[in-house]
Write a structure and sequence with these properties.
By secondary structure, the chain is mostly helical. The chain is built from 1 helix and no strands. It is rod-shaped.
């Protein structure tokens, strides 16, 4: 039997980044930018200025 300290083999959550959270954040930001561009160029600019 080999008795040694397996401290480094344990799961350490501080070594991993929240990839799913960043992916979701990037998807939401991308969707909001696309929606803003659609509203600005597709709705507001074709209607012209305020009269």
């Amino acid at each position: 039997m080999d008795i040694r300290n397996n401290e480094e083999e344990r799961f350490d959550p501080s070594k991993f980044t929240p990839i799913g959270t960043w992916t979701l954040l990037c998807l939401i930001v991308t969707g909001m930018v696309i929606a803003w561009l659609f509203l600005y160029f597709g709705v507001f600019l074709p209607r012209g200025g305020v009269q």
